[in-house]
Design brief:
15% helix, six-stranded antiparallel barrel, alpha+beta, 6 helices, 380 residues
Length: 380
């Protein structure tokens, strides 16, 4: 995705409140919209903002989630009540899942420098205003319920790429943020069981760490990054026990919470979780793959849009991990962009510049296979 890195500015729209957004990323996944919804928003926003007087181009988008709440009760999503028909029968509807969320959007754009002059209209304010009239992952943008301007600035930010990357890790004495110390573990008795402390100990004063202002705007929050190397590692582990294991088996195992029993030296049985070291790892949908040839526009009957080519596709899946955005050393590691290969029938999204592999983990040497899912229709 070399072309996605050829941008000149960053636009950050902090803490956008969205209600009734799509909760299903794919037929098998729910909890947060698919990243294809946000890359589609990027394209739609570019078409809305770009004019002869405003030559903008949106290259990539990053998303930081601050609050996500599924509209469900006792494990069942809330359904809308559709108007009844003339014969007083209930109108058929498709069951769906919705959620409310607060997200920060980071766009990588190409914008001329004269938009930064004081005598010009503020570009980020205009982009924010246009976004407020659009759908975000099928949801409606609403004002923040309880904004707190003293905690972090809520104004949109426009900065040159070099200045933004320089400010990403830069902090001053005025940017001190009080963070509480971790509570010490309770004392243990000889049998290894915890016991209540006899007297309360005075708590340590909170430590102060320098947090750059740009990162403070993202707190608290988490960003979704793709880590396809985990799929290949899990596939190798499964094939050591079952040579017939497939990438789909590895993908399912990374999405499940399972435990197995082990005996220690004393013969006691202990239950060990298979999710050790996989905190924040989730299966994700990354786009679509063709399952048939591409037909010219208007040649397929009852197509949703007869003015564009038609091709039957199915969902493509990969593995992602939720991470704290402030731990990333470069903001480009948050960005997602389209990666299409029409000759292969692959229409997916991916990271513009994947974050470096953490210490203690192995780096995948090759791109693992992507698991396919349920067939879906794509007309544009």
């Amino acid at each position: 995705m070399t072309g996605a890195q050829d941008f000149t500015h960053y636009i950050m729209l902090p803490h956008i409140r969205v209600e009734a957004a799509q909760a299903f990323a794919a037929p098998q996944l729910h909890g947060f919209p698919a990243m294809t919804a946000f890359t589609g928003l990027k394209t739609a926003l570019e078409r809305r903002c770009r004019t002869p007087d405003r030559p903008l181009r949106f290259h990539a988008v990053g998303v930081v989630a601050h609050d996500v709440e599924e509209l469900a009760t006792r494990g069942e999503f809330h359904q809308t009540r559709n108007p009844i028909l003339k014969n007083r029968e209930t109108r058929p509807f498709q069951p769906e899942g919705r959620l409310n969320m607060t997200v920060t959007l980071l766009f990588a754009v190409s914008a001329p420098d004269y938009w930064l002059h004081e005598d010009r209209p503020e570009l980020p304010q205009q982009v924010h205003g246009m976004l407020s009239t659009m759908r975000v992952a099928g949801g409606t943008v609403v004002p923040e319920l309880h904004p707190d301007p003293t905690r972090f600035p809520l104004k949109p930010v426009l900065m040159r790429k070099a200045d933004f990357e320089d400010s990403w890790n830069k902090s001053t004495t005025a940017d001190l943020l009080a963070l509480p110390e971790e509570a010490p573990p309770p004392p243990l008795s000889e049998d290894g069981k915890g016991e209540k402390p006899k007297a309360k100990t005075a708590q340590k004063p909170p430590s102060q760490r320098r947090v750059p202002p740009l990162k403070r705007m993202l707190m608290p929050g988490a960003t979704l990054l793709e880590e396809p190397g985990l799929l290949g590692q899990r596939l190798e582990e499964l094939r050591q026990e079952d040579p017939q294991a497939t990438p789909f088996d590895a993908w399912l195992s990374l999405g499940m919470v399972t435990q197995h029993s082990e005996k220690d030296e004393a013969g006691k049985v202990q239950w060990v979780s298979d999710r050790k070291g996989l905190g924040g790892v989730v299966p994700i949908a990354v786009g679509y793959g063709a399952i048939g040839p591409c037909h010219p526009a208007g040649t397929v009957a009852d197509a949703r849009n007869a003015s564009v080519p038609f091709q039957a596709v199915e969902s493509l899946y990969s593995i992602g991990r939720w991470k704290w955005p402030c731990a990333l050393t470069d903001p480009i590691h948050l960005l997602w962009a389209e990666h299409t290969e029409p000759e292969r029938g692959v229409y997916r999204v991916g990271m513009v510049s994947p974050a470096p592999v953490d210490e203690g983990t192995e780096e995948a040497t090759s791109q693992p296979e992507i698991v396919s899912g349920q067939p879906q229709e794509a007309t544009d």
